[in-house]
Amino acid sequence: MVKRIILLLAISISLNGMLKADEGMWIPMLLEKYNIEQMQEMGFKLSAEDVYSVNQACLKDAVVIFGRGCTGELISDKGLLVTNHHCGYGEIQYHSSVENDYLTNGFWAMSPEEELVNPDLTVTFLKRMEDVTDRVLEGVSDDMKSVDREKKIKENIAAIKAEAVKDTHYTAVLKPFFNGNQYFLFINEIFKDVRLVGAPPSAMGKFGGDTDNWMWPRHTADFSMFRIYADKDNKPAKYSKDNVPYKPAKHFSVSMKGVEEGDFTMVFGYPGSTYQYVPSYHLEMLTETINPKLIDVRTEKLDIMNRYQEADPAVRIQYAAKNARISNSWKRWIGENRGLEILDAINKKRTYEKNFQAWSDANAKEYSNVLAQYKKVYDEYSNYRLAYGYYREMIPSNGMEIASLANKMDVLKAIYKAEKVDEQAVGKLKEQLLKKVDLFFKDYYKPLDKELTAKLLGMYAANIDAEFQPEVYGVINGKYKGDVDKYVDMLFAKSIFDTKESVVEFVNAFNAKSIKKLEKDPAYILNASFNKVYNEVIYPELNKQKLNKLNRQYMAAQMKFEDDRVFYPDANFTLRVSYGQVKGYNPRDAVYYKHFTTLEGIIEKDNPDIYDYRVPEKLKELYEAKDYGRYEVEGTVPVCFIATNHTTGGNSGSPVLNAEGHLIGINFDRAWEGVMSDLMFNPDQCRNISLDMRYVLFIIDKFAGAGYLLDEMTIVE
């Protein structure tokens, strides 16, 4: 078994010549070994040490995890941070109301005192990373049972993490790479006082809405600004009026030089998940089973939400973030299927597998049965994967909201079922729970949830096999004779979870006797019924180690099969570098897309009758007057550009850097033709979409009148 892959490849010829330009999400610690020569040949003017170092301030010190799923970057020595508008969307919505609609009107703090506090928002800095493969796999052998192997690895990981952060305020994350053939430790510093500084109106920050999402050309000002605060010693601290702006070790200089086709670009951020090395059976499962069914269910969710949002401005605000989360993956799945079909990805995989099989039969018989085992596993796994995806859509992923709220009560139930009740802990728990209840009802509309609940219950019954049907369907089919609407009428009539007042009263009065009342509540029963199927039927099968073991073996085998290739690890929301160049592309016959868009395109799309295309009057006034200031380029203002960098979810908000390491853009999307890049990269079609920093500065200065923010930036003319 190969325990160390990328670090122990003994290749006698030059590796750099074997790297594919553009494709790849590379480990910053290993740039010197595998990438820097090619990067410099493409025009990069810095060293690997300038990008990643533990001995000196470097570019990595200006990059953060923003929240729980995006990237952000520091652009001043006063903790000023920029990320995407859609990454800060939840915070903007949190502070919005009909009276102060920051989603529609935008928000700009004109002084530090006006910056808005965001409960639970964090940013995370990477301090260092370390290859700990040998330590993680110590005491592990190939002939161990899977359960024993995983147990030993978990024990080793726990010990390594505990030792790494002992007597510090840091946190440790340890993740597998190459499907468990390699492991890296990440030491992080987490800041908990992050305040909203500015955001353009949604008509700019979300310009084009779902219609333009995942598309090129784009004209979206997808950015928002925050500030990190620290204690007087520049250390992380919870919110306090005594906290001061954080002083980073490094912040990015902002370039006004712009981009030209062919320019070097580097994206530095936290890509979420990719699956480059899966077998053809995985692609078949996604394109033929999973994606079509989940696309259908999200289509119904969006139809219901859109109808209620269009009818009521308050509901539009309440469900803005939820709608955006649902529609994002919905459109990506559609594009993913389309892109894989155009690329003929399944047949490409099959051809590769045919060659792999011939090689393994002749040279590595220990891997000869891997593909046959994959086929058998996927024949069983696909149904469970679909059931899991549908389960997520029913409740956790913006599904039946009344059931999801009932689920939050399990923490109270658990504490009162303990042998000894800690009343102090109960009080604190109730306080935390009431905050969640308050946030829940701030963005909740019962008529929408009721209709959505009925629709989802009907779709699950029609699309998921009987073995995955929760017990609640026995009630629906028995007592209610299959009438889902009658069941839902009862659910909302009898549950205590449909109004804030009844839930607050229930939580405040909760004691041991309340458990029976909770367990009889129909919303709680509904949630528990689905959770039982997941915990007892779906999860045990998905958690079996068959697929994990095969993935680990197949990854090691592929790297032996192609021993002259330098592999990059799949994304796993750890800090990565991708590099490429500014470049247009041909999306289809007789069509060529240029590499940039301008303010003219925004005005062309202006349509007051469509919410997503209502250009703010102030922006139109600036356009009519040609009041572009220092941001004018050939009579207009640059807006967005595309490049060949390999990106995915999690890269939202990532800094896009030029050859000098200066910030030229903010990554926010991929082009529709290339969204299958999580599974297979096509250099002719895959393009990342970025917001030009000149448009960002133009909006801050000329549109928002918040030019004081530019004063604290380092701007390179």
Which percent range describes the beta-strand content? Answer: 5-15%
SS field, number of helical segments: 28
Query: What proportion of the residues is helical, as a percent range?
Result: 40-55%
- In this structure, how is the largest beta sheet organized? 11 strands, antiparallel
* Average pLDDT: 94
> What is the distance, rounded to the nearest whole angstrom, between the alpha carbons of the first and last residues?
54 Å
Low-confidence stretches: 1-17
Radius of gyration: 26 Å
Class based on secondary structure composition and strand pairing: alpha+beta
Describe the structure.
The protein is of the alpha+beta class and 717 residues long. Among the domains are: 128-191, no CATH class; 280-547, no CATH class. It is 44% helix and 15% strand. It is built from 28 helices and 22 strands. Strands 1, 2, 3, 4, 5, 6, 7, 8, 9, 10 and 11 form an 11-stranded antiparallel beta sheet that branches. The chain has a 7-stranded antiparallel beta sheet with strand order 14-13-19-20-21-18-17. The chain is globular and about 70 Å long. The termini are far apart. The relative contact order is 0.17. Mean pLDDT is 94; it is low at 1-17.
What's the structural blueprint in terms of helices and strands?
Layout: H1 31-34, H2 36-41, H3 48-51, E1 63-66, E2 70-74, E3 80-83, H4 89-94, H5 102-105, E4 107-108, E5 116-117, E6 123-131, H6 133-136, H7 146-165, E7 171-177, E8 182-191, E9 193-199, H8 202-205, H9 209-212, E10 224-230, E11 244-245, E12 254-255, E13 264-269, H10 280-311, H11 313-318, H12 320-343, H13 345-363, H14 370-394, H15 401-407, H16 410-417, H17 423-442, H18 446-463, H19 472-478, H20 484-494, H21 500-508, H22 514-520, H23 522-542, H24 546-561, E14 576-581, E15 585-588, E16 591-593, E17 596-598, H25 599-605, H26 617-625, E18 638-643, E19 655-657, E20 663-670, E21 688-692, H27 693-703, H28 708-711, E22 715-716
Parallel strand pairs: 12-22
Antiparallel strand pairs: 1-2, 1-6, 2-3, 3-10, 4-9, 5-9, 6-8, 7-8, 9-10, 10-11, 13-14, 13-19, 15-16, 17-18, 18-21, 19-20, 20-21
Helix pairs in contact: 10-12, 10-13, 10-14, 10-18, 14-18, 14-23, 14-24, 15-23, 17-21, 18-20
